[in-house]
Design a protein that fits this description.
The protein is of the alpha/beta class. It has five helices and seven strands. Strand 2, helix 2 and strand 3 form a beta-alpha-beta unit. It has a seven-stranded mixed sheet, sandwiched between helices. The protein has one domain: 3-Layer(aba) Sandwich (Rossmann fold), CATH 3.40.50.150.
Amino acid sequence: MTQLVKVGSSRAWLRIMALLYDPFLWSAEIAGMRRRRRNLLAQAHGRVLEIGAGTGLNITHYPADLDELLLTEPEAGMRRKLAHRLRRHGRRAVISDAPAECLPSDSASVDTVVATLVLCTVDDPARVLHEITRVLRPGGQLLFIEHVRSKWRPLMLWQNIFERPWRAFAGGCVCNRPTLDLMRAAGFEVDATDAVWSGMPFVVHPLVIGRATR
């Protein structure tokens, strides 16, 4: 979802972002992101850990028969909205304030890790991906929806130009991060499709959606 960080953003702005996050994403959810969440999360099974769960936009899309659902979100404002959404939908989950760089799970203890619109925001994506590989059981999976650096050079150049202002505005979000390359460098085999994040600013239009395994 998102993991708001301090880089490029004040704590006050992060609190404001927690309030504005759902309205800001509303049109994009209607334009297709909600459907993409539902289709992706239908594959979740067993013990599930979602990193950067944000305000809980994934909550209603998880299968009902999971063994356990663990949600991490370090930003207090986001956690409050996440807890409220869980209560509203009658969904049981464990919420942690742990950052994605230090996941609150034992090694080889999780069947599915979920990352939706979060690997763009973490300070150290290589460390986060290492943590994901640590907690995944053999045969486990990483399900992801992430916006990434564009393959189209003109848009890539605009992403480079807007990287700093976008990062300051969007709570540390890096609009041009080569996330699939980072996954592969961490040893994942990636099965992903490209998409467009409709209803959002053009610098975050390129999406990748898929499943990664070790």
